[in-house]
């Protein structure tokens, strides 16, 4: 990883658009502690939305807050 060559980064940012936006939403709710900030653009399509809502609902049922910077574009 980059950390092995340059040390621990100050922050980690994940950006994704289309399929990458779907992936970024998945990581946001299922692997929340991997990144500090998320830039999410136009998640894939109407077929992805139901599962993304499920991820969000499951996260909200188990957590009070989502302490991450999320920018939707």
What topology emerges from the helices and strands here?
Blueprint: H1 3-6, E1 13-18, H2 19-30, E2 37-43, H3 49-62, E3 69-72
Helix pairs in contact: 2-3
- In angstroms, what is the radius of gyration? 13 Å
Distance, first to last CA: 28 Å
- Ranges where pLDDT stays below 50 over 5 or more residues in a row are none
Main sheet overview: 3 strands, parallel
**β content, as a range?**
15-25%
Order of helices and strands: HEHEHE
* Counted beta strands: 3
Number of helices, where a helix is a run of at least 4 consecutive DSSP H or I residues: 3
Q: How helical, in percent, are the residues? A: 40-55%
Q: Give the class from helix and strand content and strand pairing.
A: alpha/beta
* Number of domain modules: 1
The side-by-side strand order for the widest beta sheet comes to: 1-2-3
Average pLDDT taken over every residue: 88
- Shape descriptor: globular
Describe this structure in words.
Helix 2 (19-30) runs parallel beside helix 3. The chain is an alpha/beta fold. Strands 1-2-3 form a three-stranded parallel β-sheet, with helices on one face. It is built from three helices and three strands; from the N terminus they run αβαβαβ. It has one domain.
In short:
Helix content is about 40%, strand content about 25%. By secondary structure, the protein is an alpha/beta fold. The model has no long low-confidence stretch (mean pLDDT about 90).
Main features:
73 residues, 3-stranded parallel β-sheet, 3 helices, 41% helix, 23% strand
